[in-house]
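Morning F.,

Quick status update on the modeling queue. The single chain you submitted on Monday has been processed. Sequence for confirmation:
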Amino acid sequence: MASSGTGSRPFQRPWWNSSPVQNKDLTSIGRTETGILLLAISLLLGPIPYLMYVGYLLGIIGSVLVILGRKAFGQFHSNLVKLSVGIWVLGIIVSILVGFSWGYDVATGISTYSSPASEQAFLISAFNDLIVGVFVSAAIIGIATVLITYALQTRVGRVLLITGYVLGLAIGVSILSMITSQVNAAVSQALSMQDFSALTNLQAQSQLLGLVSLIPATVSAFALYLAYSRVRSGEIPSSTTVPAWS
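Structure tokens below.
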């Protein structure tokens, strides 16, 4: 891959003067550049109620673009992106299994337990298992977020990615411990008094506590922005980068 000059961005040539391979690289670089930017935005929107759904959509689009553009940045990056996709799929499968298991347990538990006390204890346990399962799923998907741009980062960017992930886990564990301690009372009130206000308040509290996750999200988003800047400025792929075209 040739560069048009010192400090200039690689592949900045008219399309009609470029070879098919160079055109392919230009397309892949553009996709990766846009994809990383969308991923960074999605991380910032993730902890915000309601906007999180926009973040999910942007994250999916960004991931697809990075996947499509991965081969212009060498085999190591391409392999990490594929590994990231595999881990992301694993996280989604875990979340689906957790949700299905919770729904099945609740449905069968209600019909199995005749005593209100035993039914209440079972539902409390099911809710706690659901919360833990969601956390585990999010932790798995977080690994995919670290890996998808890891090869494009400098040492600083990689440290920021790992720091953001570890901070996210720490905050998640703290929120988890605070919520699970209140689940018992909220579920008991909902079952015994048909009063769901405690559960509603617990949900609102969870969303409010979730805003603290903006801290690790910002750290991770900044790391992605560093990778985006490297791609946009032409620092990567460099003239020595070997494409992973197969």
